[in-house]
Design a protein that fits this description.
Layout (H helix, E strand, L loop, with lengths): L1 H4 L2 H23 L2 E17 L12 E11 L4 E15 L6 H6 L2 E16 L12 E13 L3 E4 L2 E4 L22 E14 L4 E12 L27 H6 L24 E16 L4
Length: 288
């Protein structure tokens, strides 16, 4: 009996019988649903920190919206591209420091940001499951952004970078170059995500940026002084002269040449707090 088992025909037949369950199992695995990514939108608030908000107060939060795509690498790690539009701004009227209140500067800016982020889930996250549908997570990465600070004078809007309010590009300050309206930032943050159905995730996230510019607010170093802003053809102070030193509107002007206007040692920063909702994408792949 044992010898007959090793006849070629019987051996192949037996091998096929043993292989069938494996083929069935593999076919089932190949048809198994797998989550590959998600497309979503985000909305929340943004807060600026810098020379006008040195105490990092959360008292001038402005809107932020975005759209993103997250690629799942596995149940713990995802890679994300996130485009955001937000508004940032602040005013010395919010400050309690006497010098800052007398300085009387303010700004606003529209900011457009494209971020590349890596997300790490603390718990195994499996959309559609009952016991692995929630996880806190960490996120980090880098972003490039465009900004253009502006302020109002007598109800009219003026963009500040072309005015060279700290003497950039003038003969008095050849070492002060006009700043770029493009910059980048390092990102770090975290949040909580929850899968509410087989097709939808929701999340809340706080994300902090350490930028490589000190001019989100158009404030960085010392006052250039009145000599850097000669009167116009009509003999009146120019718009640049008026916006570089706003202290005269609340008292005696303090914008003398060389006096501290900002702190160039620290770069500007900003924070977003967002809610997001996303639609999941699936495919059929073998996990084995």
């Amino acid at each position: 009996m044992l010898k007959t088992f090793f006849y070629p025909g019987k051996f192949v037949f037996t091998l096929l019988l043993a292989t069938v369950p494996m083929l069935v199992q593999r076919a089932a695995a190949q048809s198994e649903l797998q989550y590959v990514g998600e497309l979503g939108i985000s909305a929340g608030t943004a807060q600026y920190f810098g020379d006008l908000n040195t105490r990092r107060a959360l008292n001038a939060m402005k809107p932020a919206v975005g759209i993103f795509y997250r690629k799942y690498m596995n149940d713990y790690i995802g890679l994300r591209a996130h485009f955001r539009y937000m508004q940032l701004g602040y005013s010395d009227t919010y400050n309690k420091n006497e010098f800052a209140r007398r300085r009387n500067l303010s700004f606003n800016t529209d900011l457009f940001e494209l971020a590349l982020q890596g997300d790490f889930n603390f718990f195994r996250f499996e959309p559609g499951s009952l016991d692995k549908r929630f996880s806190p997570y960490l996120t980090g990465g880098v972003s490039g952004f465009h900004f253009n600070p502006y302020a109002y004078l007598d109800g009219k809007k003026y963009y500040l970078q072309p005015l060279h309010t700290e003497g950039q590009g003038t003969a008095l300050y050849p070492d002060r170059k006009p700043y770029s309206l493009l910059s980048y930032a390092w990102l770090i943050g975290g949040g909580f995500k929850y899968n509410i159905s087989r097709k939808v995730n929701v999340a809340i996230e706080a994300l902090y940026r350490y930028t490589e510019t000190d001019y989100l607010d158009d404030v960085s170093t010392t006052y250039a002084g009145p000599a850097a802003f000669p009167p116009g053809l009509d003999g009146q102070p120019t718009i640049a002269a008026q916006l570089q030193d706003r202290s005269g509107a609340v008292g005696t002007p303090i914008g003398v040449q060389g006096r501290q206007r900002g702190n160039s040692r620290d770069k500007d920063q900003y924070l977003t707090i967002e809610l997001s909702i996303s639609i999941l994408f699936t495919s059929y792949h073998c996990k084995f």
